[in-house]
Every structure is written in C-alpha cells, then in structure tokens.
Amino acid sequence: MNAVNPRNPRPAADAADAPAVDAPAEGQQDKAGPPAEGPDERAPRLTIGAAAHRLGVAVPTLRSWERRYGIGPRPLTPGAHRRYSPADMARLEYFCRLVGEGVATGDAARASLAREPEPAATAPAAAEPSAKSPHHAGGGHTLPVGSGSSSARGLARCAVRLDQAQTLRILDEALTRDGVVEAWENTIKPALLAVGRKWTETQGKYVEVEHLLSWCVTTALHRFQADAVEAAAAAAAAPAEAGAAAWPAAPPEPAPPEAALAHRRVLLACAPDEWHCLPLEVLGAALLERGASPAMFGAAVPTDALREAVRRTDPARVVVWSQTSHTADPSALPFPGERSRCRVLPAGPGWLSARPAVPGVLLTLADALEACLA
C-alpha cells in the first residue's frame, strides 16, 4: 500500500449558519447552462456540521483530522466554501473504518488519501444538527485497552463513538475469524474492561457506551450461534455422495466419552436477582461451538423455576452465575436427585463471598468450559 504525504489544506471555514447543501444563488446561473462538471462536482456537498453528524463524530474531531492528517474536503475553486463531496465522505468513511479496526490514525489517514474512492450514487444530504441535537462522541473520548489486540482497540473506539454498525461488524469478524474463546479473550474482554475502568475514573460516566457494547456483544453471539445451528442442520441434511447408497452402510463407530457428553444438555442461568448475564451468553456460544446443547435461561431465574427445569430435562450440567455478593445465595443452587448424573456448577465472583462457603467456584471461561465438557 503506497503512502502519500498528508496535505496541509487551508483552515476550514465555520459554516454553522450555512445551509447543509450548496445551491446556486437565484439569478446567478448562466443562461447558456451550467459549466461542464463531473458527477462529484454536481453532487450535493455537506457542511462540516452535516458531515460530522453523518460520521457520528464531533465537529472539532473532524477539524482535527484535517489539520493533522490532511484528510478533509477538497475545494472546487480557491476561496469556495469548504464542503464535503461524496468522494470526501467516502475517504472519511474508509478512514473511520480503518481506525475502527485498530489501525493507527496516521496510517489510516495515509491509506485513505492514497485510495481512490469508488464512484457511488449521490446520497441525500444529512440535516445540519441544531443546537439541541445530541452531541456525538468525538475528540477526548478514548478507551485505553492496554495490551489488547488491534481488534480490541478498534472495538473500543467504535463503542465510544456509539457506532453500532461498526461495533457489530468488528464483533462478527472476530467471532468468525477466531472463534468464541479467542474473540472473548483478545477482543471483547479487553474492550469491556476498558469501559469499566473508564466508568470508575469518570465516576459513573460512559454508561451508554457499556450498554451499547454489551448489547452488540450479545447480538453478535446470537448471530454466531444461529449461523452455527443453521450450518449444522445443513450438513446433517446434505445428501450422501453419489454411489454411496449402493453399498451397505458400515456400523457407526462408537463415539468417545468426551464427545458423547459434549452433546448433552447444559443449563445456564443467573442466580435470583442477578441481572449480569453476558458471561453466560459467551459460555453458551462457546459450548454450542464445541457441539454441546446449551439452554440459556437468562437473568434472575427463580430458584423453583430452575429446579423444575432440572427435573424435567435431567441435564449433564447446570451453571448458575452470580456477579455480586448480594446475589450469591447457596440455597438458590438446585440440587438434583441422588440418581441424577447432573452436576451443579457455581460460576462468577459473587460466589466467593457466599456464606456458607460454596466450593468449586468457576471464575474463567476456560475453567467453565472444561467443567461443562469434562
């Protein structure tokens, strides 16, 4: 990929009071018709406020990108209003995508400037945000992820911008590329921990970022599981290879004990009054990925309801999650009958404070997977 030097455009004019789209003044159009223009010159051009609104960033952030990296609007003629054409927006959208993937900002700007944007149909102009419009996340909003991967940095950047579409795209790609466990350890967990640290440092701010990120993680995990179930069903329904029906079917080989157990049911439930169920969502997706049959009951499952589910299904394992000490009630753990082979597995840091003490608490995804499939 060829790099080009960032350009140094003139400072952007403050066009807060200007209309979002350039239009010829009345009586100024040439009677012989407008001059010959390319498609990009004839397309509506956005003010900096409208461009920032469409990208989901603050106006100062957009000006900072132009000042530091030269990625901004390209005026048609000297002295003209600095408006953003479709080509300018395509470069900026590509730039935001690279930054969201964890590429360094300077490298993303150089790659965007070196890339010739593909021609696209003219998009309708975004409305200029009013003074009452909500402020979009922009400069000064960062989520350091420490030693996290580039995808974790990209995920944190998209989450703090409240860019739901890009957040989901990064999560989908990480799950497909790395699988559930690696995606959790290298991409998802570092970003979630960064949000938690930011919440502590800012005394309760960034709740909206945590909510959006958690929702996106849950949605991506559900997509991943739906795709896995669909792929398994398609594989099971695929016709046998040509000619296979002419031969007698060989007796199936006995499955190893581990595989036989992996296909048994695992119930996943939060303790009563426990509403943090994202860890169980991750565990459920990882179990399904390995061939198990998880059944997710979600948050705040009443004890009697969970016991009834255990009685009706006789699962191989039951995982009960407690995030905080006030939800860790040992009496909420279902105890299967003496003849049942079911094992009840307490998981989550809340159980560490339980009284009386609860043995065998699972604290990591790897330990929970091993216990469920053992």
TrEMBL record:
Gene3D superfamilies, per the entry: 1.10.1660.10, Cobalamin-binding domain (3.40.50.280), Methionine synthase domain (1.10.1240.10)
HTH merR-type domain location: 45-92
Compositionally biased spans, kind Low complexity: 1-25, 119-132
Domain of life (superkingdom): Bacteria
A Pfam family it matches: MerR_1
A GO MF term: DNA binding
Gene Ontology BP terms: regulation of DNA-templated transcription
Region of interest (Disordered), ranges: 1-43, 110-149
Protein name per its UniProtKB record: MerR family transcriptional regulator
Organism: Actinospica durhamensis
